[in-house]
Amino acid sequence: MHLREVAEEAGRLAGRLGLEAVGQIAGLLYDLGKYLDAFQRRLHGGPRMDHAAAGARWARDRLPAPWGGLIAHVVAGHHTGLRDGLLQPDGRLAQAGAAADIAANGGYVCSVRRGAGPAPG
């Protein structure tokens, strides 16, 4: 229920940019890591773990560029904030630097790097 509501709201907000489906997918993936055994142990006093990384990795590894990288960026940053340099001062998407890395689906996307193992836990 919660993920559906988040997906609907994220889709509504992203729809303002013509990206409703992208927002919906991000909304469905943002808490994917809460289904991991490590997160369930966390609920019972276990060590902290990064639950956002699981959904970000899923998007990065399984969705086509540039969408997988962009969704991974949003999902990975849903608690920590988004990486600087994605937008220009006038609000347009930057064409170089961080935006290019993210759109290329290859470089560093928040705490999620290609080839990184499972989230700490």
From TrEMBL:
Q: Per its UniProt entry, which superkingdom is the organism in?
A: Bacteria
This protein's UniProt keywords:
Endonuclease, Hydrolase, Nuclease
InterPro entries, per the entry = CRISPR-assoc_Cas3_HD (IPR006483), HD_domain (IPR006674)
What sequence ranges are listed for the domain HD Cas3-type? 1-121
Question: Example GO molecular function term?
Answer: endonuclease activity
Q: Which PROSITE patterns would you find in this protein's record?
A: HD_CAS3
The entry's protein name is CRISPR-associated endonuclease Cas3-HD
Supply the source organism for this entry: Endobacter medicaginis
